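One such shown below:
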Amino acid sequence: DFFISRRGFFFDLSPWEDEAATDDMLQTAGTDAAVLKEMLKEAYELKKGREMCYIGGFPAWAYKYTKHAGGKHGDVETEWHFSELISHYNAFKDADAIGYGALANASFWQHFPTKRYRQRWTDKQELQRKGLVDSNGKVRTDRQYIIIYMGDYDASSWVSQRTADIWDAPERGRLPIMWCISPVLSERIPHALHYIRQTATTNDYFAAADNGAGYMIPGIAEHEDIRCGTTNRIDTWAAHCQHYYKKWGLTVSGFIIDANGPAMQKRALDAYSKFSPNGIVPQKTPHRLLHNNMPILPSDWDLVDDDPKKAAKVLVDRLHARPVPFHWYRCILKTPAWYEQVIQEAQRLDPSVMLLNMPDFFELYRMWLKEKG
């Protein structure tokens, strides 16, 4: 109903060029994808390349266009390919996905009044007071610093349906948590995002979910595309994100899915350094990198096991395999109680494990990168 209220156009098309859509097997291979590209190009031209196109949802991979329905491509493969395709045309998606994909009455809730929200950062003096920096002003490296991406909150429907049991859990607030929520979701569920910020404890911190104010692939958007006839896409994306980051007090992008696109190069990194100056976490990046004073940390493993002890073992085994004392992990729709048990078990397995809040983690990591040159 939200998209109807915004005079949106509804479509159901396969993104694959190399096979016929599984719901129309008699078509010429790639017909669906060709129509999709034509639509996206028209949307790009209507906006004169100066605004982003807002897409709601994914291809219905559980029912069509994938191996589930006789196609030859996998689920994540299809998700990524669709993301890559729309990134050529200044489009992003609000990633409603299977499981919690339904959302009603957003056409009403979109009118909920919000305000500007703020978060404070930290500095070297505060880190020194906490014992994270030694008397010589150097980062202490006798510890393994960790932060966990609490996601996936890149979809309005997921946030709407899981706020009641995950966010409102009584265990929230006992440990610092980096909640990663796409700020563009405020278009459809502003009431939920406002409620979350108004009820946050001093241990609740907020970063953007993948890949900023919406889900698209920045490594694709930064390159001119003669074939598609689209230009300056990364600049449009940066302006779009800057608006939402400023309103919601965000300075960190908790995860950037590069998918099968190229790694972010100078133009994309320059863009992110303007609206996400305190850190980004891409899939494709060197282990140590500081760009325009923006710390860049490579993403790492997901913690998927529902058993906190098994998840903690994965966490500890992985940090022992990595050469740096800063570690990022991702979890999907996990509760604060699970999170607390994982941290407790990880610290039992390795007492050097130290969970930091978001500002302390990324500022300490920035200092460490500068020390390493």
Remarks:
- The mean pLDDT is 96.
- DSSP finds 13 helices and eleven strands in the chain.
- The domain at 127-372 is CATH 3.20.20.490 (TIM Barrel).
